[in-house]
Amino acid sequence: MASMVEERVSVPESFRDLKEEEEGEEEDEEEDVCRICRNPGDADNPLRYPCACSGSIKYVHQECLLQWLNHSNARQCE
């Protein structure tokens, strides 16, 4: 199914992996989660930030984003 979605939706080459936690950040901060499924990222399904959104809507899993773009017929972030 992912191949059908990838054919319809163009994912930018610059789709970046979540940066590792910067030195000096507090450990008790809330964990970053996907803006669509609300789950954290992991090694198999990392969080990405493909657009200029920030705050709690900054991060997304690639598969979640592809499914959302396919379902919404959107071509870019709102």
UniProtKB/TrEMBL annotation:
GO terms for biological process: ERAD pathway. This is RING-type E3 ubiquitin transferase. One of its GO terms (molecular function) is ubiquitin protein ligase activity. GO terms for cellular component: endoplasmic reticulum membrane. The lineage of its organism: Eukaryota, Viridiplantae, Streptophyta, Embryophyta, Tracheophyta. Residues 26-78 form the RING-CH-type domain. Its EC number is 2.3.2.27. Residues 1-19 have a biased composition (Basic and acidic residues). It is a multi-pass membrane protein. The keyword Lyase does not apply. It comes from the Eukaryota. InterPro entries: Znf_RING-CH, Znf_RING/FYVE/PHD. It is found in: Membrane. It comes from Nymphaea colorata (pocket water lily). Residues 20-31 have a biased composition (Acidic residues). Pathway: Protein modification; protein ubiquitination. It catalyses: S-ubiquitinyl-[E2 ubiquitin-conjugating enzyme]-L-cysteine + [acceptor protein]-L-lysine = [E2 ubiquitin-conjugating enzyme]-L-cysteine + N(6)-ubiquitinyl-[acceptor protein]-L-lysine. Keywords: Membrane, Metal-binding, Transferase, Transmembrane, Transmembrane helix, Ubl conjugation pathway, Zinc, Zinc-finger. It holds the Pfam family RINGv. Residues 1-31 are annotated as: Disordered.
